[in-house]
Amino acid sequence: MQAEERSEMFRHVFGSLTREIGKVVVGHAEIVRGVLICLFSGGHTLLEGVPGLGKTLLVKTLAESLDLHFSRIQFTPDLMPADIVGTNIVVETPGGRHFGFQRGPIFGQIVLADEVNRATPKTQSALLEGMQELSVTVGGTHHALERPFFVLATQNPIEMEGTYPLPEAQLDRFLLKLKVEYPSAEDLAEIIERTTKPISHPVQKAAGGAEVEAMKALVREVPVPQAVKEFVSRLILATRPSHDDAPEMVRRFVRYGSSRAGPRRWSWAARSAP
Fold first, then answer.
1. DSSP string, 89-152
2. Which residues of 49-85 are buried (b: 16+ CB within 10 A; e: fewer)?
3. 266: which residues sit within 8 A by CB, 6+ positions away?
4. How confident is the model at residue 197 (pLDDT cuts 50, 70, 90)?
5. Which DSSP category does 187 fall into?
6. What is the pLDDT of residues 2-42, one digit of tens each?
């Protein structure tokens, strides 16, 4: 397939996904765009917002519009790592008993980590290997995850009682953190209009795993001008407090700047103002 045809396929699939999600999700155009950008960039997304803004609905609708295996994990304080990655159990067969691996919900392609900050850091760490290496290791056995693999996590910024802030190692796995804001007056009117009528528009499949992987490959092939590369390098260096080009604000408030320029490689820590 020629580059022009692949680019046209990219535009078509991106537009189709946006329209299908728009059948259910009202507003949040920038959030939808950010989620799709993250998907086709090979990263993971953290959605933050108060309850009732449609974060979970957005993820479910995206899963419906893609012909991929969807898996949902409801994070709670009593959730254990084995509840996510799976565990070895005794299996009864005609030939006798033996240990078999029972896969956990992380073995999906679109994984919703709902209210991820309600589980302990120990449980949150069960996502680290899968998000970084696209694999899971249980009992010394390496299990590859099916591609594409995309984690969308949600967290509630209020009701902090009983929640556990995400460790920096966990935050480092997310390419984008998107803040879901309140809907506008026009969006509220449209939501009321849609939810007071029995008519619904079913979401259609707009792409499958092969199309998503092809679009991810196309993204990596887009040429980057030398001037943009140099600007990104200067920007990254300016985030490091010890660098000569770091502005005063960075020297004052940032403890660790950005590491190498790649997905899931941003590490920040705020420093208290003197």
1. EEEEETTEEEEEEEE-TTSSSEEEEETGGGS-HHHHGGGHHHHHHSEEEETTEEEEPPSS-EEE
2. beeebbbbebbbbbbbbbebebbebebeeebebebbb
3. 172, 258, 259
4. confident
5. H
6. 778 888 889 999 999 999 999 889 889 999 999 999 999 99
H or E stretch including 67?
strand 66-67
Model confidence over 127-160: pLDDT tens digits? Answer: 999 999 999 988 888 899 999 999 999 988 776 6
Report which secondary-structure segment, H or E, holds 154.
strand 150-155
Q: Give this prediction's pTM.
A: 0.82
Tracing tokens 């997310």 back to the chain, one arrives at 174
- The separation between the first and the last C-alpha atoms of the chain, rounded to the nearest angstrom, is 58
CA distance 49 to 141: 37
pLDDT confidence bin for 1, thresholds 50/70/90: low
What's the full length of the chain, in residues?
274
Element (H, E) at 208: strand 207-208
Ordered alpha helix ranges (H), the chain: 3-22, 29-41, 55-65, 82-85, 121-124, 128-133, 168-171, 185-195, 209-221, 226-238, 248-253
